[in-house]
Specification:
This protein is mainly beta. The protein is elongated. The protein starts with about 25 loop residues before the first helix and ends with a strand. The N terminus is likely disordered.
Length: about 325
C-alpha cells in the first residue's frame, strides 16, 4: 500500500489502460466501469450531501457582515453495489474554508450574499479487485456562492430596529452556485474539484416558539456535465433532492443548540450516456452548538453521523467554526 502523497499513476483507481489482470468480458468491464464511477462519487457525496446548516434563514439586521473560518473532519466508510470489485473503502477528509457574507435590503425584505473558498485533503484506502490501494488528494476546492432572500417575515431592519422586533415566522428562498475553480486533473478518478457547475435552488421556513425554534428546508442539486472525466469521458449526474430539519433552543443571542437531520436521494450518474447503478439515498443526524465568545466573536461546534446509507458515504463529521461580525454604519 502506498503512503499518502505517493504517485498514484499505477493505482487501478487512476488507470486508463486496458485493465491488465482483469477478465475483460463485457460483463466484467461493465462492472469495473461502474466501480470507477461509484468511487468518483466519494468526494462529491462529502462535499454536497453531508452538509447540515441550521439557522440558514434566521433573522439578521441589514448591513451585517460575517467572516467565518471553518474546519471539518469527516471519516468513515463508503457503500457500493456488492457485486462491484471494490470494497472496504475508508476515507478521512479534512476541509478548511474561509467565508464572507453580507446582508442588505431589497424592497423591504432582508437579503444576503455569501461566498466560501475551501481547501481540502483526503486519504482514501480500499480494495480494488482484491488489491489494497491508497489515494491521497489535496488542493483548493470549488468556490461556493449563495444568494438568499426572506420572502415572508424578517423585514429589512437596522440594528436598532432589529433589537426591538418580535420574532416571527420566516419563509425564505436561496440559490447556491458552485463554480468549477478547484484543482482537477482528468487523468485522476478522484479529484478535489468537480470540473462542472452545480446549482441548488432552496426554500426554507423558520418558526419560533418562545425560546424554541423549528426549521425545515427543501432543495435540489442540479449539475452540468463534466466533459473531461477520467481521460476525456463525459460524466453526467441526475439531480439530487435534499431535505433538512432542525429544532433547537435559544438561551440568549448567539447561544443556541439545535438537533439536525438531513436526507438526500438521487444523483445517479452516467458515463458517455451509459447509466450507472449508483442511485444514492442517505439519512444523517447531528447536533450544532453556537457559543458567543465576545461582542463580535462567536464559535460554532457541530457533529453529525450517518443513520441509513444505500449507496454513498457513511461518515462521522466534526466541525468547528470561528465567526467575526460587524455592522455597516
Amino acid at each position: 500500500m502506498k503512503p499518502p502523497g505517493a504517485p498514484i499513476g499505477s493505482n487501478p483507481i487512476d488507470r486508463t489502460d486496458d485493465l491488465r489482470g482483469f477478465n475483460a468480458t463485457s460483463r466484467s468491464v461493465s462492472r469495473f466501469r461502474h466501480a470507477l464511477a461509484c468511487a468518483a462519487l466519494l468526494w462529491f457525496a462529502l462535499a454536497r450531501g453531508q452538509e447540515m446548516e441550521p439557522r440558514s434563514y434566521s433573522a439578521v439586521p441589514v448591513g451585517t457582515n460575517f467572516v467565518v473560518l471553518d474546519y471539518a473532519r469527516s471519516s468513515g466508510g463508503f457503500s457500493f453495489d456488492p457485486s462491484l470489485p471494490i470494497n472496504n473503502v475508508h476515507a478521512t477528509i479534512n476541509t478548511w474554508s474561509l467565508g464572507y457574507s453580507h446582508s442588505f435590503g431589497i424592497a423591504g425584505h432582508t437579503a444576503s450574499v455569501a461566498m466560501s473558498m475551501p481547501y481540502a485533503n483526503a486519504n482514501v484506502t480500499g480494495n480494488v479487485m482484491g488489491v489494497p490501494e491508497n489515494a491521497y488528494r489535496s488542493g483548493l476546492g470549488d468556490v461556493r456562492f449563495r444568494f438568499a432572500v426572506n420572502l415572508l417575515g424578517d423585514p429589512a431592519l437596522t440594528p436598532e430596529e432589529f433589537a426591538r422586533r418580535t420574532p416571527s415566522t420566516i419563509v425564505g428562498a436561496s440559490l447556491t452556485v458552485v463554480a468549477p475553480t478547484g484543482q482537477y486533473m482528468p487523468s485522476r478518478l478522484i479529484n478535489v474539484g468537480a470540473n462542472r457547475w452545480s446549482v441548488k435552488p432552496d426554500i426554507g421556513i423558520s418558526q419560533p416558539f418562545g425560546n424554541w425554534f423549528v426549521e425545515g428546508t427543501a432543495g435540489v442539486w442540479i449539475y452540468t456535465d463534466n466533459d473531461d472525466f477520467f481521460g476525456g469521458r463525459r460524466r453526467s449526474q441526475a439531480p439530487m433532492p435534499t431535505f433538512q430539519g432542525h429544532a433547537g433552543y435559544n438561551w440568549k443571542p448567539g447561544l443556541w443548540l439545535a438537533a439536525d437531520v438531513t436526507y438526500f436521494t438521487g444523483g445517479r450518474t452516467s458515463v458517455n450516456g451509459i447509466e450507472d447503478q449508483d442511485l444514492q439515498s442517505s439519512l444523517r443526524y447531528g447536533v450544532t452548538l453556537s457559543i458567543p465568545l465576545a461582542v463580535r466573536w462567536s464559535a460554532k461546534l457541530a457533529w453529525s453521523q450517518g443513520l441509513l446509507t444505500r449507496v454513498g458515504g457513511n461518515f462521522q463529521t466534526f466541525s468547528v467554526a470561528l465567526q467575526y461580525r460587524w455592522f455597516n454604519h
